[in-house]
Design brief:
alpha/beta
């Protein structure tokens, strides 16, 4: 018996990193998982790695047509893990309208409209989980637009928890610190720069290391399951102490 037997979970941005680790764990606990990604080849690989409980839908959460197509194929949901997102470094003098719009449309708009479209499908007792970041409470030189989107998700968590509590739907968020994912390495322009970036980030964590996607997935499972039945509107920091110590 798994903790999520008979449950259906939607996980966006699940072709690698945190999303993929969460999809694997939730599926191993008995859930049927529907995952999304923008690239078909990566999506197919992710589905194959999860196994028979997984279904993949190619979709960009910042594209309304893709979201319509995604939700047209769904009936009921017990869990929504709105994880898709990303960002790029840009110091204040270098921020462009395109950088701002792309980051906000994906991280904020994509999350907002994913959850909105899921509402008619969410069963009583459903769990909605947003991927925020510990950067939502910290200063972030050259990463301010990304940080602002994550602060918006923290605000969404509180507001939606208040709005949906009457339906028995819980809304919580997870705030990872630096996690060893392809997306984090991709912030650097080349392998040497990536190595330097990752070492620098690890040195700023009290535990002196990067987190692993599976460690975030464990927190996702907690929020998705009945183990967190008395939690809503909360944010869990999984960051090696970086935001607390």
């Amino acid at each position: 018996m798994g903790q999520l037997d008979g449950k259906t979970a939607l996980i966006t941005g699940a072709t690698s990193g945190i999303g993929l680790a969460a999809a694997r764990l939730l599926a191993s606990e008995g859930a049927r998982v529907v995952i999304t990604g923008r690239r078909k080849d990566a999506l197919d690989e992710a589905v194959a790695s999860i196994g028979e409980r997984a279904t993949g839908v190619q979709a960009d959460v910042a594209n309304p047509d893709d979201l319509d197509r995604l939700f047209a194929g769904l009936t009921e949901l017990d869990i929504v893990f709105a994880n898709a997102g990303g960002g790029e470094f840009a110091a204040l003098p270098d921020i462009t309208w395109e950088h701002y719009a792309t980051t906000f449309n994906t991280n904020v708009g994509g999350t907002l409209f994913t959850v909105q479209k899921a509402l008619p499908l969410l069963k009583p007792g459903a769990s909605v989980i947003l991927t925020s970041s510990n950067i939502d409470v910290k200063g972030a030189g050259a990463f301010s637009v990304y940080a602002a989107t994550k602060a918006a998700l923290r605000s969404f968590t509180r507001s939606w928890a208040a709005e949906l509590v009457g339906r028995g739907i819980r809304v919580n968020s997870i705030a990872p610190g630096p996690i060893a994912t392809p997306g984090l390495s991709g912030l650097a322009g080349d392998p040497a720069s990536a190595e330097q970036l990752l070492k620098g980030l690890a040195s700023g964590v009290p535990m002196q290391r990067l987190g692993q996607p599976e460690e975030i997935a464990n927190a996702v499972l907690f929020l998705a399951s009945g183990a967190s039945s008395y939690m809503t509107g909360a944010e869990i920091y999984v960051d090696g102490g970086a935001s607390q110590v």
